[in-house]
Records
---
Amino acid sequence: IYIENSLRYNDDDNPMLSRSMGSGNQQIFTLAAWVKRGGLTGNNQRIFSSDDEASADWRVRFQGSTDKLEFVDSYNTPSESYTQVYTTRLFRDTSAWYHIVVAVDTTQGTASNRVKMYVNGVQATDLDDGTGSSTKYPAEDDNLGFGRSGTTLEVGASFYSSSPRQSFDGYIAEVYVVDGTQYAASDFGEFDEDSGIWKPKDAKDDLTFGDEGFYLEFKQTG
């Protein structure tokens, strides 16, 4: 009811938006979008991602086998230094809109402040590494895959993945990619005074997007 424009993704068509990235901030960034799942396909469904020939992959996605929301960054190797942050909450309501915010700042001294995940205005604090073990936050001052010059940032799929391409299935709206600032969910939305429902607000003129940031309103018709 609060979202006027969105982009519809049919995963059978392998949909994707992509953009070549210049040199951005690999330590501080924020990703935000409203999403409504069209189905539980059993496949991984990416909301944001970037692959550098599958060697420096990061992604925000619904994991196909569990329907958890995850942020994983494998820019740093070996695997012990991977960033792996998963919600223990499952996202299986195909009638609901979810506002997803992943806010990263690896310069923070407290590990849990380096990756913050918000859903519908509330920070997710019940997290693990996807296997039930402790969350693997990035090391302090780590450079991550976001903002790496020459990579491709994708919205709604993975450019290099194939069979399947981990395409999103459903609706995506109000996409924000912010380079250089760790924002909170309250910078993108607010609770309605009457209903208490989390809703988007016009934030595009109040944010600092940085060199590689952008906003997708999907206002075009036709």
Note: The chain has a mean pLDDT of 89.
---
Amino acid sequence: MGGLYSDDEKRKVTPMAWVLHCGDCLDASGGLASLEDNGVDVVITDPPYSEHVHRGFGAERRNDGDRSRPALSFAHMTPELSGKLAVELCRITRRWIVIFCDELAFGMWVSALTRAGGQYVRGGVWTKTNAMPQLSGDRPSNGMELLVISHAPRAKGRMHWNGGGRPAAYRGPAQEHSVPRIHPTQKPLWLMNRLIAEFTDPGETICDPFAGSATTMVAAVLRGRSAVGWELDPAMATCASTRLAGTSEQLPMFDGRSEEAP
């Protein structure tokens, strides 16, 4: 079960359900503030990146002078915004907080989460095996993205994840032929499936305040977790809701392995 709701509608997430809110995750009434303390188990999210990334996205020129892709339509992350988000994430989360970011935003997120009382644990990395090339040819392309891995401040006892002693290092494609790409910064399903498998347990509730195309939420539902998310753009929220509604019929169950080359 699941549904798409506006910010002024509050819904509790029931086991094996998803709730996608159309609105701002920092809205005082319908955003993260509407969730109870320790109301979700794990946060896994892909928020906007630094100003440097946003400024360059869509500004690239190919060798023939044409643009390679349109610019991003949403604002970049700032220290003020990351600080507000960190306070809410540390308040609502019972266990892990995993945030995708670029190298210039990594320290900003670590500082914000630490100030909010979170426990910084480790950095992770995703290496892309089919990264977009630097079409101008005058500098290296970007072949990786980082993850800030933190833990909630009120955790009792030992931390727990399902990855054993392996590093939080992921290698695989940025795009999958089997999964339609509907968002300009969409993460691959294999990657989000791995993160859900390693950082969460069956029956837990996963939160994604920047849902985008809802890949994190799709992976959560496929693995028997509940999911709650926010997406600011109404058109994208509708697409994401449709994708979630058809998840069980349209998408296969993944086994946690990436599509990386042997």
Note: The radius of gyration is 18 Å.
